[in-house]
Write a structure and sequence with these properties.
The chain has helices at 5-21, 24-39, 44-61, 81-98, 103-128, 131-140, 169-174, 183-195, 220-264, 270-284, 312-316, 326-338, 359-364, 401-418, 422-440, and strands at 148-155, 158-166, 179-180, 202-209, 212-219, 289-296, 301-308, 319-321, 348-350, 370-377, 382-390. By secondary structure, the protein is of the alpha+beta class.
Length: 441
């Protein structure tokens, strides 16, 4: 199973893609029917719809299966986000006609389309900030004495020219398809091609960059002065790409929160709310099992409400005095002292529950590492309960920061939903306490 939130969200994306590809023929047939209906009008909207269908067909049905990452080509200029949403609706309708679409399938397909929309819009921006555009800008600049830059890659055991950026277009055209056994050999050839009779006045400086080498042509007299600036500029370019990637990764937890809210907001009963909340924790975050517990501050009792990939009846049979869980009890004492000042409560990560939870629970549910995600009504600074999560029987794991952020928001959203059923939850807890007392007597 996925170990990080980003991996889990990629699994949701892949689930949506796999579901859609099962119905490729039916979906394409429906899209063609829509195009035919619009075709007689021959308006700009029809052209935009046609290009959007072509764009989505490429993304959904012509991606390279050996590339698990998102495979989205640049969005056509006429592609319309409204049509993307419209065509997404037709996908849901087609699948619903041929099979009962589960909530998880619906959520995965919706997430897939949202990422395609997002990536499609970003492509133009990213193309303008590619290595090629950056090198082209450096060579074209009148402020830098760079005559040419050659991008050198490996072709088997040999070095080959992949791309030339030069002030003189003729020079770039004449140096394609060059290969040599060494960087030195290809540098000598390029130096002659670039500068002919003036080659003694220029030097080619090799600069490693990612999985290629840049050969930068500079006047010898300027090389020592200009090279530090070029190296600094390339490093800044690499750093900016990393920042963009980190920003995209940090967005994943926000995507998870949006999908979680969409999943739970339509809950029409306590049972449905518990199922959606527990399912959302597992389907959208890197966890395998989830148990939802209520918390009574008056009795200091935790009572089981629901289990996902766990025996729900066994979970409902649990009512435990929080004082029997010292680590949790100490955290709750802090909450009682400072709770009114808190807008959220941090999840509690327990690397090994042995000695923290009562042995009977550790053995019965084969617990190792767990996370306690507080279910918290922030408007009233009230703890309603917790989701206890793990990655499977006897499974140790760690949690990344993005997952922590998501757990906080999931807990707040779950609190808003469960607060509507507080009386029903209290009644269930009281029954559990009574049953526990009767068994003890």
């Amino acid at each position: 199973m996925p170990f990080t939130l980003n991996e889990q969200m990629n699994a949701v994306y892949q689930k949506g893609l796999e579901t859609i590809q099962k119905y490729e023929a039916e979906i394409l047939r429906e899209w063609q029917k829509i195009l035919t209906e619009f075709k007689g009008k021959r308006t700009k909207k029809w052209e935009a719809l046609e290009e959007t269908v072509a764009f989505l067909s490429h993304c959904l049905f012509h991606w390279k299966k050996e590339e698990p990452q998102l495979h989205v080509k640049s969005r056509p200029l006429n592609a319309n986000p409204f049509f993307v949403t419209f065509l997404e609706d037709t996908v849901h309708n087609v699948i619903q006609e041929h099979a009962r679409q589960s909530d998880h399938d619906y959520m995965a397909i919706h997430y897939l389309f949202s990422k395609i929309n997002e990536e499609g819009f970003l492509q133009q921006f990213q193309q303008n900030h590619s290595l090629e555009s950056f090198l082209d800008y450096m060579v074209a600049s009148t402020l830098l004495p760079i005559e040419a830059i050659a991008v050198i890659g490996k072709k088997g055991e040999r070095f080959a020219v992949e791309k030339i950026f030069a002030k003189d277009p003729a020079v770039a055209a004449s140096t394609n398809f060059l290969e040599a056994d060494t960087i030195f050999g290809i540098s000598e050839t390029l130096l002659r091609r670039f500068h002919h009779n003036e080659k003694d006045q220029y030097t080619l400086i090799p600069v490693p960059h990612d999985d290629c080498t840049l050969l930068i042509s500079l006047p010898k007299e300027d090389a020592s002065r200009i090279l530090p600036f070029i190296l600094f500029s390339l490093q800044m370019f690499k750093d900016s790409k990393k920042i963009v990637q980190l920003t995209k990764e940090s967005q994943e937890w926000k995507d998870a929160v949006i999908l979680f809210n969409e999943k739970i907001i339509g809950s029409r009963s306590l049972t449905e709310a518990l199922e959606n909340i527990a399912g959302g924790f597992v389907e959208l975050l890197p966890f395998e099992r989830c148990a939802i517990f209520s918390y009574s501050s008056d009795e200091q009792i935790g009572a089981g409400l629901y289990g996902w990939h766990l025996d729900t009846e066994a979970i409902r049979g649990i009512t435990e005095d929080i004082q029997n869980l010292p680590l949790v009890h100490n955290r709750l004492k802090l909450l009682n002292n400072y709770g009114k000042k808190l807008k959220y409560i941090q999840p509690l990560f327990i690397a090994d529950v042995k000695g923290v939870f009562p042995d009977r629970y550790v053995r019965r549910f084969q617990l190792k590492t767990v996370v306690l995600a507080p279910i918290y009504l922030s408007a009233k600074s009230q703890l309603l309960g917790a989701a206890i999560l793990d990655q499977g029987p006897n499974k140790p794991f760690t949690v990344d920061q993005n997952t922590v952020y998501a757990l906080i928001k999931f807990g707040q959203s779950a609190g808003e939903i469960l607060a509507k059923y507080s009386d029903e939850i209290s009644l269930k807890a009281q029954r559990g306490i009574f049953r526990r007392g009767r068994l003890r007597s």
